Amino acid sequence: MEQLHLVGIDYTIIIAYLLLMAAISLFFGWFVKDVGGYLVGGNTIPWYISGVSNFMSMFSTFVFVGYAGIAYEHGLIAVVVFWSTVPACIFAARVMAKRWRRAELTTPIEYLEQRYNVGIRQMFSGVGLLLRFLDNAVRLYASGLFISTVTPISLAEAIWISGLLITFYTIIGGLWAVTVLDTIQFIVLFFATLILVPLSLYEAGGFTGIIEKAPENLQWFNGEKGAPLWLIAYYCLVMLKYNSLWAFIQRLYAVKDEKSSSKVAYCSAFLFFTTPFIFLLPAIAAKVIVPDLADPEQSYVTLCAMLLPAGMMGLMIAGMFSATMSALNSEFNAIAGVLTNDVYKRLFAKKSSHKTQFYFARIATISVGLVITFGALFVGNFGGAFEAHKLFNSLFAIPLSVPLIFGMLMRRPTSLGAMITVFGGAVLGLSFNIWGWFDWQTSTLLVVAYCLTSFIISGLINKDIPEKVNQFFDKIGTPLPADRIPSIDPGFKSALAKLFGLSLMIAGFFFIGVSFFTLADLSGKLALTAGTLCAGIGLYLFFMSRRLLTNR
Fold it and tell me: pLDDT, tens digit, for every residue of 355-400?
């Protein structure tokens, strides 16, 4: 198939959109003046913003590359695989959220020193950083693959450009900027995808055309990933990985109280359950439209290039890039938090001022961005985005997750048990992958069984619970007192609503503007409708900002 590239109006739209995002980041860069605001948002981020941000932090272009590849090859099973995040979020809402908020942390692994000892905290800092670097290199690789497919630049150039831009946006405004950008990007990407869904169905001949030419792709459990054992293993992996994901945990304690923390997780579960079919349907239809793609992971971007007219393609690319920016912004901020609080402050500068820590957090963000960008250049050597994602998380996510999650639920397991769980689980997973004794799903379940067993046994043989551990469990078992629950100034709420309103109105005008080039076609009419709705939401929020200011 002939390579399709962006044209001048597409680049104009992308640059304009990125400038809008930069303006939002600069607003929060002015607002955030200390390390607490930079890393945890001052614990004042509204739950609905934090919930959407959390959803977007897991989204990224990986969905349009890795999951889209599954949807192209095997159909609706991609939605079932995507739904693995739903029970993980519900578990977080019911069990973990209130504990994380009551712990009053700056970073997710800060509590490990009191729960275990300083050695465990530092071990998790090192090994956990390695996992986060690998996992985010996969996401950045997916973004580069997407961009390089529709532009003249190479994959390596696309990765470097993406990595440097994302680092720039993260460093400016901290967690507040990250969460607000995530929310705006979710709305823009949702509307952009809604345009592609009817276009792809029309081109495929509707569901009837898919049933006639690729009926197996409308079966829920088609392909090897539809096998019960594979799904059980993947759901177990996501349950553990997601509830130990630094960016997710950060969202849970960045809100004002326990109730808001649970709402963050429930909001994420709702979005993960309701949106996958919308986002992945074009990739399912692509099997009929372009049936002989050499690389299934390029199905989504190929379809965009075929069906979206000039200008609209630029909006879609901006949305896709924004999805990755949302995910990596969150991760870069969380990783910088660990480097600042758990490495720099804890090991090298215990008496450093808040101002010094604030500057170090920004330097750490730059370093994180550069390392992850460099690592993304090599992801293709592991068999593609989804396979690399699956491999890295099988090796490290499970062993790290068990002590981090269950250390908050069980008093008796010891620091030795945590260490044996992490290193033993990693060695076991590495052995399975090197020598291929079992298939992936069996290996994963065996590692899960080993990690849970070793950790629990260390608690069964432990007869002495240190006083500091009891104090920690007393703290997370006690609701936050009223004087520890922060509030947001109504004036800032009004400014925030105004910022959302203006941003969405501008994004809506982008859609409306590009629709005029193809208003006679279905794509133009859909873009005009999407733009009108987006601008309407923005206008409503703008006028709501005045009401908030009046009611202060």
Answer: 777 777 778 778 878 888 888 887 777 666 566 666 666 667 788 8
Torsion of CA 54, 60, 62, 67, to 10 degrees: 60
DSSP state of 216: G
- d(C-alpha 24, C-alpha 500), whole Å: 9
The residue among 286, 16, 537 whose CA lies nearest residue 529 is 537
Q: Which residue has the tokens 């004042």?
A: 44
Q: In 3D, which of 107, 127, 132 has the Cα closest to residue 346?
A: 107
Tally the residues of the chain.
Answer: 552
Q: Are 203 and 78 in contact (CB under 8 A)?
A: no
CA distance 125 to 410: 21
Closest CA to 514 of 307, 308, 302: 308
Helix, coil or strand: residue 207: helix
> Are 349 and 356 a contacting pair, CB within 8 Å?
yes
pTM: 0.78
Given the structure tokens 């001022």, which residue do they identify? 353
pLDDT digit string, tens, across residues 330-351 = 667 667 777 777 777 776 667 7
